[in-house]
Design brief:
mainly alpha, 2 domains, Serine Threonine Protein Phosphatase 5, Tetratricopeptide repeat
Length: 220
């Protein structure tokens, strides 16, 4: 009888944990997809706020914090926002990043390094003229660490491409300089499986946009 009770308890435990995992993944997938696909700024903010709530509900799930952080970084690039608001979004991104690393036992991966670089680049985006020395170095260091762990991460080349794209030509940037990075990212995105929300796959459609952008006349 005791053996039967233990067996039933084990099955119930596994069922509950499986249901928990499926509920978490489906909720995260649905919410990030809504954030990623909408073109309505207000709906994007709402989806980002939902991602923050998901991270609070599933506090021990590192990827919940990952996507909450990512959404705040992306929101910081919203056109028309004043610098203080953009920095506030990056502040939120950094908090979620720290919570993510804590949930991971502070064991970085190529994806966490890429996200850290994205956060640094967002700081540069707010005020590049006065921040390039500090955050440009942080961006480069995280890119190097990501490449050491996984030289085939397409998001790494996507971010390097955007960095080059918006750097003045006189400093080695511009469309022509950025295009090879986007083309490299595009090749790697084609090999990536985007079916699992727990394995980041963002950046593909943005890369396609920038490839077309960089093939037009560079007037920068």
């Amino acid at each position: 009888m005791r053996t039967l009770i233990l067996a039933v308890a084990t099955i119930a435990f596994l069922f509950i944990n499986t249901a928990h995992g499926q509920d978490f993944k489906s909720t995260l997938q649905k919410t990030f997809t809504a954030f990623d696909e909408t073109k309505d700024p207000q709906k994007q903010i709402e989806a980002s706020n939902k991602l923050t709530l998901i991270a609070k509900k599933w506090n021990n799930e590192a990827m919940a914090h990952y996507y909450a952080s990512l959404s705040k970084v992306i929101l910081s690039y919203t056109n028309g926002l004043e610098a203080a608001k953009r920095d506030a979004y990056v502040d939120e991104a950094e908090k979620e990043y720290d919570d993510m690393m804590s949930a991971m036992g502070n064991k970085p991966t190529d994806e966490t390094y890429v996200l850290a670089a994205f956060i640094a680049n967002a700081r540069l985006g707010v005020d590049g003229a006065s921040r390039w020395q500090k955050y440009g170095k942080i961006f480069a260091e995280n890119m190097d660490k990501a490449k050491e762990l996984n030289p085939n991460n397409p998001r790494m080349y996507y971010l390097q491409g955007t960095s080059k794209r918006f750097t003045p030509k006189m400093f080695g940037g511009g469309k022509k300089a950025a295009l090879p990075y986007f083309e490299k990212a595009n090749e790697l995105f084609a090999k990536e499986n985007s079916d699992d929300i727990l394995k980041p796959s963002w950046g593909k459609k943005e890369t396609a946009y920038f490839i077309n952008d960089c093939k037009t006349e560079d007037k920068d």
